Amino acid sequence: MLVVCDANVLASGTLGLRRTHSAPGAVLRQILRGDVAVALSEPILREFARTLEKPYFAARLTEEERRATVNSVWDVALDALLTREVHGVATHPEDDLVLAPALSVTAEFLVTGDKALLALGPWEGVQIVAPATFLALQRM
């Protein structure tokens, strides 16, 4: 199974690695263990690293924890080369940058907490789901 995650799921997952009941944390644990293959574009990885530098995350994670998680995700992620362009599908142009890698790698799932993206529902063969929904679908 191949998934794409947005930067906020990865950032929330970084905090959730320590929590048993964190859906983003459980998704990130699966990715880091290699249970789920994740494909990420360079823009998503850069946004993930930038998000972890925001005061909210910097107050809760050491610099070493932030750097180590970004490096670990980078190590396990497949490079989602952007072979397909997406314009005007999402309500915000920056969200098209999350859809493009999912389409480019023919991901089965796009895991996001973004309400506007979730509202798209299945799109171009990609199931757009929240972290908790992704986990529930795996248990079926």
Spell out the key features of this protein:
single chain; 140 residues; alpha/beta; Rossmann fold; five-stranded parallel β-sheet; PIN domain-containing protein
Shape: globular
Residue runs with pLDDT of under 50 for 5 or more positions: none
Strand content: 5-15%
Give the N-to-C terminal Cα separation: 14 Å
SSE-based structural type: alpha/beta
Count every beta strand, where a strand is a DSSP E run of 2 or more residues: 5
CATH arch. level architecture: 3-Layer(aba) Sandwich
Query: Main sheet, how many strands, which sense, barrel?
Result: 5 strands, parallel
Q: pLDDT average, as an integer? A: 91
Strand arrangement in the largest pleated sheet: 3-2-1-4-5
Assign the CATH class. Answer: Alpha Beta
Task: Please count the helical segments.
Answer: 8
Q: How is the CATH topology named?
A: Rossmann fold
**Total separate domains:** 1
Q: What's the alpha carbon Rg, rounded to whole Å?
A: 14 Å
Order of helices and strands: EHHEHHHEHEHEH
The portion of residues assigned to helices is 40-55%
List the helices and strands and how they pair.
Elements: E1 2-5, H1 7-16, H2 23-33, E2 37-40, H3 42-52, H4 55-58, H5 63-76, E3 78-79, H6 93-104, E4 109-111, H7 115-119, E5 127-129, H8 131-139
Parallel strand pairs: 1-2, 1-4, 2-3, 4-5
Helix pairs in contact: 1-2, 1-3, 2-8, 3-5
